[in-house]
Design a protein that fits this description.
This protein is about 40% helix and about 25% strand. The termini are far apart. Strand 4 and strand 5 form a beta hairpin. With about 220 residues, it is an alpha+beta fold. An eight-stranded antiparallel sheet has the order 3-2-1-8-7-4-5-6. The longest helix is centred in the C-terminal third of the chain and has 41 residues. Helix 1 packs antiparallel against helix 2, helix 1 runs parallel beside helix 5 and helix 2 runs antiparallel to helix 5. It is globular.
Amino acid sequence: MKYTPPLDLEKGTTQESLLRQITKSIRQSLELDEIISTATTEVRFLLGTDRVMIYQFHDDGSGQVIAEAIHEDRLPSLLGLNFPADDIPPHAREMFIKSRVRSVVNVDEGKIGQSPVIDLKTGETIYEDINYRSVDPCHIEYLKAMGVKSSVVAPIIHQYQLWGLLVSHHSQRREISKYELEAMQMVVEQLSVAIAHSHLLTQARTKAQREATIIGVTH
């Protein structure tokens, strides 16, 4: 069955409508793998970019691409690939955790922009213009090697820890709008809720299995 894009910016979909649709899609399943796959596909349709993926961190700081949606094979698949911990340095991780910063990279101009979501002094949620600075040349070469001309990254937080990243890659230069940044923020917040629910479900299943085993032994 052909997948119908649930999100359509050209028709003026509001943020509230977007959040409702993504929330509904996420709540249709209690299985985290299915939730992550659905969210990845929907975000790619939302942004219209060539590749959207979800990257999950391991305990040792390395990470793996666990979900991916690609448009017409314009970028190679990274699904299942593992990346070393030093690909994302400690200071970048700290910014992701503390201020929920979202980063935007323009490869052609060699710039990286950061759009903070939380004011560290007041704790209030804010949406500011993206502040650009020069990006490390090594990171530019890293993106070029993957065929990427522009990228957007939003952190996925679980229990105040950096669980993973929602990443959008495009093979052409592309401007990211304030609306799209806010939409991505909504998605990662919903994913954080889904991850928490999944952990509770796993704990409940483990407890039920344990109790069933005990009952089986005693009978």
